[in-house]
UniProtKB/TrEMBL annotation:
<keyword id="KW-0732">Signal</keyword>
<comment type="subunit">
    <text>Homotrimer.</text>
</comment>
<dbReference type="GO" id="GO:0010038">
    <property type="term" value="P:response to metal ion"/>
</dbReference>
<protein>
    <submittedName>
        <fullName>CUTA protein</fullName>
    </submittedName>
</protein>
<comment type="similarity">
    <text>Belongs to the CutA family.</text>
</comment>
<dbReference type="GO" id="GO:0005507">
    <property type="term" value="F:copper ion binding"/>
</dbReference>
<dbReference type="InterPro" id="IPR015867">
    <property type="entry name" value="N-reg_PII/ATP_PRibTrfase_C"/>
</dbReference>
<dbReference type="InterPro" id="IPR004323">
    <property type="entry name" value="Ion_tolerance_CutA"/>
</dbReference>
<feature type="signal peptide">
    <location>
        <begin position="1"/>
        <end position="17"/>
    </location>
</feature>
<dbReference type="Pfam" id="PF03091">
    <property type="entry name" value="CutA1"/>
</dbReference>
<dbReference type="InterPro" id="IPR011322">
    <property type="entry name" value="N-reg_PII-like_a/b"/>
</dbReference>
C-alpha cells in the first residue's frame, strides 16, 4: 500500500524536487517553459487570437510570423493554402489551458496547436516568461 502511494505520488514529488533544486541553485529546469505553434487563416485572426491569449495572461510573448505556404491533407485531399503562424511562449503548465482556450475561439474545425518544451535559453528571458505568466 505504501509502495502504491509512492508510485502514484512520484510525479508530484519529482516536480517539487526539481522546483526546489531550481530555487536553490537558480538554474533552469529544462521543459519548465514551452513554445506553442498555432496556425491562423490570416493576419487579422492571428492578431485577434494573440491578443486574446495575452489578455488572459496565458503567454508572456507571441510572435506573429508572416504569411507562409502550407501543404496538408484534409478529408483525403491534398490542400495548398497560406497561413500565419503564432509562436506562443508560456509556462509548460499552461499548455492545456492555452490549447483549450484557443480551440474555443479559433475558427478552424481542427486548429494546429502543438507545443515543444524549451530545453535551454537565456536565463533572464526564461525568468521573464515565468514572471509574466501567473502560475495559477
Amino acid at each position: 500500500e505504501v509502495l502504491t502511494l509512492l508510485v502514484l505520488m512520484y510525479p508530484l514529488l519529482h516536480g517539487l524536487a526539481l522546483q526546489l533544486h531550481s530555487a536553490v541553485t537558480g538554474s533552469y529546469v529544462p521543459g519548465t517553459h514551452s513554445i506553442a505553434f498555432v496556425n491562423c487563416l490570416n493576419e487579422q485572426i492571428a492578431k485577434d487570437i494573440a491578443r486574446a491569449i495575452m489578455d488572459k495572461k496565458l503567454a508572456a510573448y507571441v510572435n506573429i510570423l508572416p504569411k507562409s505556404s502550407a501543404l496538408y491533407f484534409w478529408k483525403g485531399e491534398l490542400e495548398e493554402s497560406t497561413e500565419i503562424l503564432l509562436l506562443v511562449k508560456t509556462r509548460t503548465s499552461k499548455i492545456g489551458e492555452l490549447s483549450n482556450y484557443i480551440r474555443s475561439i479559433h475558427p478552424f474545425e481542427i486548429p494546429e496547436i502543438i507545443s515543444l518544451p524549451i530545453d535551454q535559453g537565456n536565463p533572464l528571458y526564461l525568468k521573464w516568461i515565468e514572471e509574466n505568466v501567473p502560475r495559477n
